[in-house]
Amino acid sequence: MAQGGDAVIQICFHGAESTGKSVLADKLARALGVPWVPEYGRAYCEARGTDLTMADLLAIAEGQQAAIDAASASDPPLLLLDTDQLMTAAWAEMLFGEVPDALLAYPKADRYLLFSADVPWVEDGTRLFGQTAQRARFADLAEAVLQRAGVKWQRIGGTWPEREAQVRAALTDLT
Questions:
Q1: For residue 19, is it within any domain?
Q2: Cβ distance 174 to 9 under 8 Å?
Q3: Hey, which residues does 115 pair with through a beta bridge?
Q4: What is the CATH number of the domain that holds 107?
Q5: Residue 20 belongs to what domain range?
Q6: Per-residue pLDDT reduced to its tens digit, 103-136
Q7: Which of 12, 57, 115, 124 could join 81 in a cystine, given CB atoms 3.0 to 4.6 angstroms apart?
Q8: Does residue 170 sit within a domain?
Q9: Distance (Å, rounded) from C-alpha 142 to C-alpha 91?
Q10: pTM for the whole thing?
Q11: Is 3 within the bounds of a domain?
């Protein structure tokens, strides 16, 4: 169950880079008046660069959990997660060909929304896998991590308005 209290429903946005997770999490959190937890890894990479080691990924996972715990402390009825450690696990697989057990041991969200890599790539200075083959591989690894973890998830895809409509419908169904 979700952290912070029995009533908290955690919805995690999951998927390859540049698929609209951060933008949509921020937009919907403001529109719905619910908290969201930004991607800790983005701030980490902006501060330290993108030449990551496995130790960096483990530090990112810890920082993400601390942010999730802090946002959960007030027991909101709904908490949107821009990402969590399962996405960090996909990064580990993509960068190093392995996933430490520690990344799979963190608490899981109640539902994962897997964003398809079917929208245009946008470079922002922290993204690494913009070439078509790399992006497709990363998207496949993101899905494989969800399957490996045995969590509930659903795919989100299409145009930006279609994605937003699908996420809104998913949130309505879960709350």
A1: yes
A2: yes
A3: 15, 156
A4: 3.40.50.300
A5: 9-174
A6: 999 999 999 999 998 866 666 655 556 567 888 8
A7: 12
A8: yes
A9: 8
A10: 0.86
A11: no
